[in-house]
Amino acid sequence: xxxxxxxxxxxxxxxxxxxxxxxxxxxxxxxxxxxxxxxxxxxxxxxxxxxxxxxxxxxxxxxxxxxxxxxxxxxxxxxxxxxxxxxxxxxxxxxxxxxxxxxxxxxxxxxxxxxxxxxxxxxxxxxxxxxxxxxxxxxxxxxxxxxxxxxxxxxxxxxxxxxxxxxxxxxxxxxxxxxxxxxxxxxxxxxxxxxxxxxxxxxxxxxxxxxxxxxxxxxxxxxxxxxxxxxxxxxxxxxxxxxxxxxxxxxxxxxxxxxxxxxxxxxxxxxxxxxxxxxxxxxxxxxxxxxxxxxxxxxxxxxxxxxxxxxxxxxxxxxxxxxxxxxxxxxxxxxxxxxxxxxxxxxx
Length: 348
Hints:
Blueprint: E1 12-15, E2 18-22, E3 33-36, H1 39-47, H2 54-70, H3 77-92, H4 100-110, H5 121-147, E4 156-159, H6 174-183, E5 189-193, H7 200-212, E6 216-219, H8 224-229, E7 235-238, E8 242-244, E9 249-252, H9 255-264, E10 269-272, E11 278-279, H10 295-298, E12 299-300, E13 303-304, E14 317-320, E15 327-330, E16 333-336, H11 339-347
Parallel strand pairs: 4-5, 4-7, 5-6, 7-10, 8-11, 10-15
Antiparallel strand pairs: 1-2, 2-3, 8-9, 9-14, 12-13, 15-16
Helix pairs in contact: 1-2, 2-3, 2-4, 2-5, 3-4, 4-5, 5-6
């Protein structure tokens, strides 16, 4: 019988004016925190993937702006807000594809309009960042609550990348659905894709689930369709970095072929994400797909496995069209087909 989720990983915390985050590049070997005191350190941690996962990036980005505000203790308020705006834009530029980062940073920046002196900026922005952290944690548990009924006793769930505690304020999105089902007493096992090129599935998802006592097995990314063809997968549940009003889902590269396989083999394909991941404005043609350093593909563990004269393409995300998605599990409920119509009805 799978163990009960401990919900004990704390990916981000604020201590005495210092932002602490788990360095995800060190997992599963070591569980260590990076301590950050400046907005530049936060930007670097996000860019280098020490911090990753759309909801968590949003939370950390919000606190990054707090750190910038705390450096401003006097002077003209309009000049202070101008400096903050530059810091906000710098943070947002670190990961252009996910929507949570912009949403959280802009929300914290907006809090600067509520103060009447530069000396109080840091405290006011800190209150807003704290509120975002609380709300994201509550949202994760609500996603689990709404998603658990979709999982049946004995199901094997396939997931991609890491959409667990390490990608959120805690508890997860896709893994929140699994955890909540387990806490309801259901026997659930998980198949996790390795998730090339940075192996978030094998390093992070497997780490979280094994830590919780939930059965998990790893597969190569390219094995997913074969397992669905064999009937070895009952449900697919993944996270998201951006969900458009049309129902298009932007997520870690490799999600689209899994969705295509699920559609062909009639396996329900669910996306789990908080409302902060919704983007009801942008057209799918305007979504920027981040291209990351080709060395992430060419090197594994610092060792090159390809010829020296060969380059690589490294898109970090892909876009799954709505017709491949069975439903979207949010913290306000499950959105079913037709997605565009039901997203409008639920979120307006």
